[in-house]
UniProtKB/TrEMBL annotation:
<dbReference type="GO" id="GO:0042586">
    <property type="term" value="F:peptide deformylase activity"/>
</dbReference>
<keyword id="KW-0378">Hydrolase</keyword>
<dbReference type="Pfam" id="PF01327">
    <property type="entry name" value="Pep_deformylase"/>
</dbReference>
<keyword id="KW-0408">Iron</keyword>
<comment type="function">
    <text>Removes the formyl group from the N-terminal Met of newly synthesized proteins. Requires at least a dipeptide for an efficient rate of reaction. N-terminal L-methionine is a prerequisite for activity but the enzyme has broad specificity at other positions.</text>
</comment>
<keyword id="KW-0479">Metal-binding</keyword>
<protein>
    <recommendedName>
        <fullName>Peptide deformylase</fullName>
        <ecNumber>3.5.1.88</ecNumber>
    </recommendedName>
</protein>
<feature type="active site">
    <location>
        <position position="156"/>
    </location>
</feature>
<dbReference type="GO" id="GO:0046872">
    <property type="term" value="F:metal ion binding"/>
</dbReference>
<feature type="binding site">
    <location>
        <position position="155"/>
    </location>
    <ligand>
        <name>Fe cation</name>
    </ligand>
</feature>
<dbReference type="GO" id="GO:0006412">
    <property type="term" value="P:translation"/>
</dbReference>
<keyword id="KW-0648">Protein biosynthesis</keyword>
<comment type="similarity">
    <text>Belongs to the polypeptide deformylase family.</text>
</comment>
<dbReference type="InterPro" id="IPR036821">
    <property type="entry name" value="Peptide_deformylase_sf"/>
</dbReference>
<feature type="binding site">
    <location>
        <position position="112"/>
    </location>
    <ligand>
        <name>Fe cation</name>
    </ligand>
</feature>
<feature type="binding site">
    <location>
        <position position="159"/>
    </location>
    <ligand>
        <name>Fe cation</name>
    </ligand>
</feature>
<dbReference type="InterPro" id="IPR023635">
    <property type="entry name" value="Peptide_deformylase"/>
</dbReference>
Length: 208
């Protein structure tokens, strides 16, 4: 999981090409389907509701998400198995989001798996959206969502454009979490160092 402070979280992701093989940092080449399955597992382990490809080190336009049988937020109910609550899951490739209800909702508490431990209310999200995307079988799909699921799709689409949920709150909120964010950045730097060492060792093995 890439953490706050990692440059990839601030880059605009590129479109995925049909049949593209992805080079996953720390894992090596994988198909899009393999990556999507890994992302779903990672999301469940972290008790999340969505995960975008940049959060696992891939600058491509794809995210996974789930709809649960209730709207319990990702950091609540941690003693309950998430899979038992799943109504449906989503893998969205090259999603294009369109707002279909411009009314804003600020009532939900929002967090991010790349900014662990920080949750805030007040992030204004459109109440309903339409998402056009390609599924894992290469088929075009169109889906409408409202309320909490619409928020999830907007949050994950933001990730594909290098936007974090804290960016949509007043600057003083980020300042209030200055100490916590510096600690996350320190962890992020250590993770990137470990990944660089792994990539170097892998390159050396391939050239022996």
């Amino acid at each position: 999981m890439r953490l706050y402070g990692d440059p990839i979280l601030r880059r605009k992701a590129k479109a995925l090409r049909p049949g593209e093989i992805l080079s996953v940092p720390g894992f090596g080449p994988q198909s899009v389907r393999e990556v999507a399955n890994t992302m779903l597992e990672t999301m469940f382990e972290a008790r999340g509701v969505g995960l975008a490809a940049p959060q696992v080190g891939l600058p491509v336009r794809m995210f996974v998400a789930v709809e649960y049988e209730d709207d319990e937020e990702e950091h609540e109910g941690q003693d309950r198995p998430l899979r038992s609550r799943v109504l449906r899951d989503f893998v969205m490739i090259n999603p294009v989001l369109k707002v279909i209800d411009k009314k804003k909702d600020r009532s939900y508490q929002e967090g991010c798996l790349s900014i662990p431990g920080i949750y805030e209310e007040g992030v204004a999200r459109s109440r309903a959206v339409q998402v056009s995307y390609t599924d894992l079988d290469g088929q075009g799909q169109v889906l409408e969502a409202d309320d909490y699921l619409a928020r999830v799709f907007q949050h994950e689409t933001d990730h594909l454009d290098g936007v974090l949920f804290l960016d949509r709150l007043p600057a003083e909120v980020t300042e209030d979490y200055r100490k916590e964010l510096l600690a996350i950045q320190h962890k992020s730097k250590a993770l990137l160092s470990d990944l660089a060492k792994w990539e170097q060792a892998r390159h050396l093995e391939q050239n022996l």
